[in-house]
Every structure is written in C-alpha cells, then in structure tokens.
Specification:
Length: 296
C-alpha cells in the first residue's frame, strides 16, 4: 500500500519504520527534515512538502496536538487540498473531540475518508510494533486498512463508526494513566518518607494487587526518578487533561479527578517540569513533602 506519513517524533518514527518493515511503500514528511534520514536509509521517500506526501492511498498523521494537526490538514497545500478523492486520512494523534468532528466533516466535503486511530503505548512500544490501536470510522475503510494497523500494533480495537469516539476513548485512557501516576506518586511519597525503598514498595504492589502495565511502567520510572529523556512530555499530559475536561463539559459529565490532575500538571510545569516525562507528575507529591524537585 502507498502510505504517506507526517510526523516523525518519538512515536511517529517507530511507526513509519514498522510500515516499511511490513513492505509498504512509505513517503515521509516532517517539519524538521533531518528526522527522515534514518527512514530514507531503509527505503522511505522523503517528501519536500505536505502536498507531495499526500500522493498516496493513505496519509497517516502522528503529531503533538490540535494546532499541529490543523496546520498540516487545513493549511495551504495541506492534506485537505492535496489528498485525492477517495483517499484516507488516518489521524493517530491525541486530539480533541471537537477537532475530530471538524476533520470528519471537512474530509467528507472533500470526498475523502477520515479515520481516527489514536494509539496506546510509549515510544518503545511504537518501535516494537506493540501499540494498541483504537479506531473510529466507517467499517469498510477500517477493514481495508487492517494491514496498516497490524504493522503498527499488537491489537486493533474498532470502537465506533464515528471517528470522534476513538479520540474520546484515547483521552479517557490517558486520564486514567495520569490518575495512576498521581496516586502512585502520593503512595510512594508516603512510604518513602517513612524510610521504605520505593522499588521494594513497587515490587510488592505489582506482585499482588496491581500487576498491570501502567503500574509497572510508571511505577518503575517514579522509583528510579527517570524522567529524562521524555517518552511523553509533561506539557502534553497537561494538554490531554484539558482536552478530557473539555469533553466532559461538552457532554455535561463532571470529572473532579481530571480537574485535580490538570492542576497537578500545572504545578509540575510551574516548577520547571514542562519537558520532563509525564511520569514526573507523580514526583510532585514527594517534592511537596520535602524531597527534590522533579528532574533535579
């Protein structure tokens, strides 16, 4: 399949590499051209413009936020202008429900197909093709894209024929992860200040009631105070907390814990933690209890 891929950051570079490994014909575009070098060595075609990378059956975007997705989609020479009729835009970015609605309408008006396919997993999972792909959109195009999703992840979940539901699921999942990070951090601050080794505490937790990836992965980062380099930066965690709250406002669902999570991210960023891994959210409790500032 001819695939254009836009966004070669921590996640996108691994995803594009796996599409190449699966035998797809992949063109890549990134605002910082140097990031394409490793992929072109493996057979990818570096496109000079967004329009050039849209000469494909499918264009996948993996970008940081709504602003970035809007720029490449709606800007001059962007995806809406450049994608051929009948072609598919797959958005794997974690974006707002409102933007997913706008993209769905705009692509339908342009005779394109829009699919939301955000993913769960950190950069190491992206590189190993171990992501979980959450898909929303028309059933026929989703079925035809099975080889793409199989190249990216270990399992695909088709949740709705409405693309925005996939984005809501992704945001809800990220909210739950952030809640785990915060509660783990508070518990570790408590036992740590009493003198217990945090790694020993984590071993106890994950060997009994909490043997789940979120506890093992983020608990390990917290216990080791391993916040750099960031797999997913704290400022993006704050962005997602705000998007969850916006979705709650739209649907009239109170989300008091999400409000707390947003405020805790604000505290982390105000203390200089903007570019730390979002796992540093859990270190705020220890900092407030007299420990070192996250990242120092």
């Amino acid at each position: 399949m001819r695939i254009g891929f836009i966004g070669l950051g921590n996640m996108g570079s691994g995803m594009a590499a796996n599409l190449l490994s699966a035998g797809h014909d992949v063109g890549v575009f990134n605002r910082s051209p140097g990031k394409a070098a490793a992929l072109t060595e493996r057979g990818a075609i570096a496109a000079p413009t967004i329009a050039a990378v849209c000469d494909a059956e499918v264009v996948v975007t993996m970008l940081a936020d709504d602003t970035a997705v809007e720029a490449v989609t709606f800007g001059a020479g962007g995806i809406i202008e450049s994608l051929a009729a009948g072609a598919v835009h797959v958005s794997s970015s974690t974006i707002s429900v409102a933007l997913a609605e706008r993209l769905t309408t705009a692509h339908a008006d342009a005779a394109h197909v829009f699919i939301s396919a955000p993913v769960f997993g950190r950069p190491e999972a992206a590189a190993a093709a171990k992501l979980f792909v959450v898909v929303g959109g028309p059933a026929g195009p989703i079925a035809s894209l099975a080889p793409v999703f199989e190249a990216l992840g270990q399992r695909t979940f088709a949740v709705s024929d409405d693309p925005k539901i996939a984005n809501l699921v992704k945001l809800s999942g990220n909210f739950l992860i952030a809640s785990v990070i915060e509660s783990l951090g508070e518990a570790m601050a408590l036992v740590g200040k009493a003198g217990m080794d945090k790694q020993d505490f984590l071993e106890l937790l994950t060997s009994t009631l909490f043997d789940a990836p979120a506890y093992r992965i983020y608990g390990g980062l917290l216990a080791r105070e391993e916040f750099e380099p960031a797999g997913f930066a704290a400022h993006l965690g704050l962005k997602d907390a705000r998007l969850v709250l916006a979705a709650g406002d739209q649907l009239e669902v109170p989300l008091p814990v999400a409000s707390l999570i947003r405020d805790r991210f604000v505290t982390l960023l105000a203390g200089g933690g903007r570019d730390l891994d979002w796992a540093a959210l859990g270190a705020v409790a220890s900092w407030e209890a007299g420990g070192p500032k996250p990242g120092t």
